Amino acid sequence: GTEMESSAKVTLFEDIFEVTALNPDGKKFERVNRLAATGTTFECDLLLDLNCEIYNVKDGDKITLVLASTLHLDGSPADHFSFDPNATEPTLADNYEYVMHGRIFDVSYKKDGIVVISASYGGLLMRLTGDQRHLSQVLPDMRLFLLLKKD
Q1: Does the first or last residue of the chain, that is N or C, have fewer Cβ atoms within 10 Å of its Cβ?
Q2: Which residues contact 141 (CB under 8 A, 6 or more apart)?
Q3: Residue 133 contacts by C-beta under 8 Å, 6 or more apart in sequence?
Q4: Is the pTM of this model over 0.90?
Q5: How does 37-57 read in b/e, with b if 16+ C-beta sit within 10 Å?
């Protein structure tokens, strides 16, 4: 169908992650949980800061994580990077529970085709490590959305 084709343009990366640890280095900020998780399909390693007052994730939870260049289902670029809860047009965000907007500030390539992607979502950090074949669409300085939902 057409819906799948259009979402393919929008989605840069998607996998289901299993949370393996919360705050592995101790809790640094009262409102922030840093979670460590492993991708169930592409076996990427994820470190992600979440505002735990808004969205609470527990050790052992399975969460779907999507990185997307825009929330418009037709793939048209994000014209503004604010999230409008009153918008009538359906967006990618409708299917998810937690949405952040941020920027990739570092992409570094390691040996054996491994890439480490670092992003900041308004000061909340993400580090995603995995095979560059699965992460090839995520580029330095790219602005992007991160979407989460619990399975």
Answers
A1: N
A2: 103, 104, 105
A3: 113
A4: no
A5: bebeebebbbbbbbbbeebeb
d(CA 104, CA 143): 6
CB 38 within 8 A of CB 58: no
pLDDT level of residue 129 (50, 70, 90 thresholds)? very high
Give yes or no for residue 34 having a pLDDT over 70: yes
CA separation for the pair 145, 12 (Å, rounded): 10
Domain count, the chain: 1
pLDDT confidence tier of residue 81, bands split at 50, 70 and 90: low
Residue-number span of the structural domain to which 123 is assigned: 1-150
CA 88, distance to chain mean position in Å, is 24
CATH code of residue 22: 2.40.50.140
